[in-house]
Design a protein that fits this description.
Elements: H1 27-34, H2 41-59, E1 68-70, E2 78-82, H3 90-98, E3 128-135, E4 138-146, E5 152-161, E6 167-173, H4 179-191, E7 199-201, E8 213-219, E9 222-225, E10 233-236, E11 239-242, H5 249-253, E12 264-268, E13 274-275, E14 282-283, H6 286-312, H7 317-327, H8 334-344, E15 359-363, H9 364-369, E16 372-378, E17 389-394, E18 397-405, E19 410-414, H10 421-431, E20 438-444, H11 449-462, E21 469-471, E22 489-493, E23 509-510, E24 521-527, E25 530-532, H12 541-550, E26 560-565, H13 566-573, E27 578-580, H14 581-589, H15 594-606, H16 617-623, H17 628-636, H18 646-655, H19 663-679, H20 692-707
Parallel strand pairs: 1-7, 10-12, 19-20, 19-21, 24-26, 24-27
Antiparallel strand pairs: 1-2, 2-6, 3-4, 3-6, 4-5, 8-9, 9-12, 10-11, 13-14, 15-18, 16-20, 17-18, 22-23, 22-26, 24-25
Helix pairs in contact: 2-4, 6-8, 15-19, 16-17, 16-20, 17-19
Length: about 700
């Protein structure tokens, strides 16, 4: 690969003695270049030796011929890479393996290599390795080793004629059996991105992995991963480089920087990017930044055009708005959505609203002046509960308003009946259809049907023609049933201040309301004023309610619970709108997510006074991003927190049929903390009131000692 190295013309005048900087031939220098260069030594060896093999095949015109990689096993405990390319003669072997920064590939972007370091990468793991070089019918075997003064050396062991074709094999022993799996894992990681996969020997049942994409070649050389909420990578010369830590990314790329968080794979030709000596990270010189910017600009242009075409294909404005509301959540299409909405002046996109969701807000007094009345309810509950109603405070006056959101779950019911529109709509949608919908019943005071329809048409036009519009007369009418007696039924609210563990006391109030078939009632069985569960034991409603509140499950707090005598239970069990309270608890408990569990565990384990030492973001910033402390903070201090009690959550989940697992999260956090204890032992003894700079200085001192 051609290196982007500037040649400066320097003019000196009236200067004294000059001299060039040199690298001293010493054990320390070689240790830095071989051992200290790579953070993941096994991955580096697999990558560097394999890239050399690919380059040799390219030079020999055999790009599609696989090279061979042997992975270590118990019976064959060695790692090797064998190519079938150009081969090396004696002088070439000695020159390449004894001279750091010596490379034959710096004049062409056809090759991956350039630095003259990769061939020495085995020294980062072992003190000796074997090089077998075959060139024009002569096989030479060399031993590369660290001599008695710590300097890499090479010695020819044998020379013989051979019928084998040209090529080079690098081989060394793997004495630690625990590294066998590491070599296999890194082979998966490295070869995943190779265009031509090598032949794997040694291990059995090795299956090469290939990248999986949601969409390939959105623009040439840009692919979208299956997980769009991950960092992006750059691929050049079969090597994957992370793109998650670009300094001042927003300064260089503007709004396009957000695309790098969308799990993209950006492919580049050799020479379009510069990289660090370890080849583990990119070097963000102007060459690299300009190449990345061009890819992002092309991608954004394509996404913008693609989204515009997709949106324009949707005729209905409400349906088109749903596409905008959905895709604006996507980091990938967010800028494309905003540009489309801006360029087209799309009327149902509000840039000031949450995710652009448009809401139509009507002054109720203005509606009344037009002879219109709007009542709304949520089909799931069947109760109006002032859905859509609100007020705006202007000056010293409250103005009542009605808000209709642009949402696919909105249904507009036009009243063409004399009476019963709201009741019929509630019965139809609550008991029969679209239980997720919010229903707006629109009525007009006009006696004349034609006048009424004109006002309806005007309102529908103002709302940009919602897709779900029905006439009240087309809805299913409720069949009246025999009224249910309230005898033997009482109620109690759950809002009373009770705490888990406290003794429950129950004060029931007689239920005297008319029972409505369209209302959902929650009930328990009463025995001498005490609620009992399915097993016939006392049912501690308030204690369970308090536990749910502590766990962040507050949906039952506002529920009114009816207590029903045993002799009435069978009668109510056959009614769809009467729900046993324990079933409601099971429904709410089933909503517990792994993320909720993790947030509770993180809160419990990380938010104590003592643990503030380990979650200080200011200290992490002072210590530097490469510190293990900073990595811990960035991982765990930003975990979502939740109010709750882990023990109560596990109890509730077990009681009502959903198992939750907290040990995995606890162990992960605990192990990470123990690792910090081990590396930074004094953190356990530093007061949390100590200056943050003291924490940071100690951490940097430990890190510095580790790198010496």
């Amino acid at each position: 690969m051609k290196l982007d190295v500037a040649v400066n013309e320097v003019v000196l005048s009236n200067v004294g003695t000059t001299g060039e900087f040199r690298i001293r031939n010493s054990a320390k220098a070689f240790k830095i270049l071989s051992d200290g260069l790579y953070s993941n030594k096994i991955r580096a060896i697999v990558r560097e030796l394999s890239c050399n093999a690919v380059d040799s095949h390219v030079g020999a015109g055999k790009s599609d011929v696989p090279f061979e990689v042997h992975l270590p096993t118990i019976l064959e405990p060695w790692f090797s890479v064998r190519d079938f390319g150009l081969g090396l003669d004696g002088d070439q072997v000695v020159n390449i393996y004894t001279t750091y920064f010596e490379s034959t590939k710096t004049d062409s972007n056809a090759f991956i290599g350039a630095l003259g370091l990769g061939s020495k990468s085995p020294f980062s793991y072992t003190e000796n390795f074997t090089v077998t070089a075959i060139k024009n019918g002569v096989q030479r075997i060399y031993s590369a080793f660290i001599n008695e003064v710590g300097v890499p050396s090479i010695a020819e062991m044998s020379e013989a004629l051979t019928d084998e074709g040209n090529g080079v094999e690098v081989k060394f022993s793997v004495t630690d059996k625990y590294d066998f799996q590491s070599f296999r894992n890194e082979a998966h990681n490295v070869f995943k991105w190779f265009e031509h996969k090598p032949t794997i020997t040694g291990v059995s049942e090795f299956q090469h992995k290939s990248p999986e994409y949601k969409e390939k070649n959105v623009v040439p050389g840009v692919h979208v991963g299956t997980d769009e909420h991950t960092s992006s990578i750059a691929i050049m010369g079969n090597i994957a480089y992370p793109l998650n830590n670009i300094p001042e990314a927003e300064k260089h790329f503007g709004e396009l920087a957000s695309l790098l968080t969308c799990g993209l794979t950006l492919e580049f030709e050799i020479g379009e990017l510069d990289f660090a000596a370890s080849r583990e990270q990119l070097s963000y010189i102007p060459l690299t930044l300009n190449s990345i910017r061009k890819k992002l600009e092309a991608l954004n242009a394509n996404l913008t055009a693609h989204f515009a075409k997709k949106a324009d294909a949707i005729a209905g404005e409400w349906e088109r708005a749903q596409l905008l509301y959905t895709e604006v959540h996507s980091r990938l299409y967010k800028s494309a959505v905003i540009k489309y909405a801006t360029d087209t002046k799309f009327p149902l996109y509000d840039p000031k609203a949450y995710y652009g969701k448009k809401e139509f807000v009507y002054n109720i007094a203005d509606l009344e002046a037009r002879g219109l009345e709007i009542k709304a309810f949520r089909a799931r509950s069947g109760q109006s509960s002032r859905v859509g109603e609100g007020s705006t405070y202007v000056g010293n006056t409250y103005t009542k308003t009605m808000t209709i959101p642009v949402d696919m779950d909105v249904v507009i019911v036009l009243n063409d009946l004399k009476t019963g529109c709201a009741a019929r709509a509630r019965y139809h949608f609550v008991n029969r259809h679209r239980k997720s919908a919010t229903v707006f019943c629109v009525s007009s005071s006009a006696e004349d049907i034609a006048v009424r329809q004109v006002e309806y048409d005007k309102l529908i036009k103002e709302l940009h023609n919602p897709p779900h519009i029905v006439k009240a007369s087309t809805l299913e009418k409720q069949e009246r049933k025999k009224s249910i007696s309230t005898q033997g039924i009482a109620y109690i609210g759950l809002k009373a201040d009770r705490r888990a563990g406290q003794e429950d006391s129950y004060t029931w109030v007689p239920f005297t309301e008319t029972i409505d078939d369209n209302v959902t009632y929650y009930y328990v069985t009463l025995s001498n004023h005490t609620p009992i569960d399915s097993a016939g034991k006392e049912f501690p409603m308030f204690a369970i309610k308090a536990m749910m509140d502590e766990c962040g499950i507050s949906e039952i707090s506002s529920i009114r619970v009816l207590g029903v005598r045993k002799n009435r239970i069978k009668e109510l069990q056959d009614l769809d709108n009467w729900v046993w309270f324990e079933d409601k608890l099971k429904e709410e408990t089933a909503k517990i997510t792994d993320a909720h569990v993790a947030s509770l565990v993180a809160t419990e384990m990380l938010d104590s006074y003592y643990n503030k030492v380990y979650t200080n973001k200011n200290v992490a910033k002072l210590a530097g991003p490469d510190s293990d402390y900073a990595r811990y903070v960035n991982t765990y201090a930003n975990l979502k927190r939740a109010t709750g009690n882990v023990t109560h959550l596990v109890t509730l989940a077990g009681k009502y049929g959903k198992s939750v697992h907290v040990e995995k999260v606890k162990n992960e956090i605990e192990n990470a903390k123990k690792a910090l204890y081990k590396k930074y032992p004094l953190l356990q003894h530093i007061s949390t009131n100590a200056p943050e700079s003291m924490f940071a200085d100690y951490i940097k001192l430990v890190d510095k000692q580790e790198n010496i």
